[in-house]
Amino acid sequence: MPRQRMIMRMSITVMTMRTAMPTIMVMTTITAITISTTTVTGITVTPMLMTTNSVGPPAAAMTEAEAAALYRLMTWLSPAFPVGAFSYSSGIEWAVEAGDITDAASLKGWLAAVLTDGSGFCDGVFLAHAHCAVAADDDRALRQIAELAAAFVPSRERQLETTTQGRAFIEIARAAWDCDGLSQAIAQCDGAIVYPVAVGIVSAAHAIPLEPALHAFLHGLVSNWISAGSRLIPLGQTDSQRVLAALEPAVSETARRAIAAKLDDLGSATFRADLAGLRHETQYTRLFRS
């Protein structure tokens, strides 16, 4: 095969001026550089060229309002926020005892169903409508949503779970994160405020957009379910995080559906999960309150 050689022609002109002064000035001018690609025995070699990376404009920083919203959502929906979520399993304890949930795969399947077709979706719808009612200053709509959400819970222990967490969330938010309009919105709800409605009211009163509030709520909900499952099955930390990672698309899809849903779209098809909540009330040994 013909052999080609790399040809590099460089013409350098060096001008040196010497004067009577001890200073020496050297002027170097590169007049031309030519580099050609060389092919040697079928292998193409391209010389590396040094280039200067262009630096684009810096990414837009979060506004003060966006930073405050992120900070509050991370705080309110963190497992460390004292609403007592760690003491509830949403019927998972009975499902583990009955053999419905035995490992990471079965836990993931159970939670995916509850999230997309059960209480997870319904809670998302209630949060979205409560948020929109507060944002629109529609007291009548907010009252109706709060009443419907409180009546929608299928078992006594689930009712205890969601109303207790809702009350704790409201009380702590008012004590540490009070804002204009929050007390007025709460006063419109005549009766118990369930957890998703409480989150919708507080986030709307603080002018936090609905979409991130809903995503954060659903993430916190799933995280608490996984925490309960990891203690009951039990699961290791790595398997627990794998389940959480696997449910990421379901969380996003449920949030998208909940935002677009009407109240007429409410409904649950997870009868086994509802039965688990009912059976848990009479379970002989229990670690969780629901």
Task: Outline the structure in words.
By secondary structure, this protein is mainly alpha-helical. Helices cover 54% and strands 10% of the residues. It folds into two domains: 8-43, no CATH class; 64-280, Urease accessory protein UreF (Orthogonal Bundle), CATH 1.10.4190.10. The N and C termini lie far apart (80 Å). The strands form two sheets. The chain has a two-stranded antiparallel ribbon with strand order 1-2. It is globular. Helix 2 (92-98) crosses helix 12, helix 4 packs antiparallel against helix 5 and helix 4 (119-135) runs parallel beside helix 8 (195-205).
Q: By CATH's scheme, which homologous superfamily of the largest domain applies?
A: Urease accessory protein UreF
Class of the largest domain, according to the CATH hierarchy?
Mainly Alpha
Low-confidence stretches: 1-52
Largest sheet: 2 strands, antiparallel
What would you call the quaternary organization? single chain
The helix count comes to 12
CATH fold naming of the largest domain: Urease accessory protein UreF
